Amino acid sequence: MPTELRRIVFTNEELRVALDNYMMRKGTPLPPGVIISVKISGADGSSITVAVRGSWDGISNSVEIPARHVGAALIRYCKMSKIPLPKSAGKSLTTSGDYLALDIKSARGDSSEFGLKS
Question: How far is it, in rounded angstroms, from Cα 70 to Cα 100?
Fold first, then answer.
């Protein structure tokens, strides 16, 4: 059975906008500054570590965010930016070079192997 794979790669600026909008709603904003790196962490990839360099002092701070929150932030960003996402497709986070990406896997069969929903 054919499977469609799609990858949406987000710049660090886009990731910052997505996380700011999502995390402010949760009451836990990111520290001020510029995202300089992103990596998937945790034994099972359950968290995303974001390094933020302060705008004023240039000091870098790492923030660990549950992957499900980052995924939700990126899905919301896509909706707000009018980037179409199929509801029934499986979604997962990965890195693409220095950036974070949302992988979308669509098949006619079950897509429950990924933990994110739009």
Answer: 10
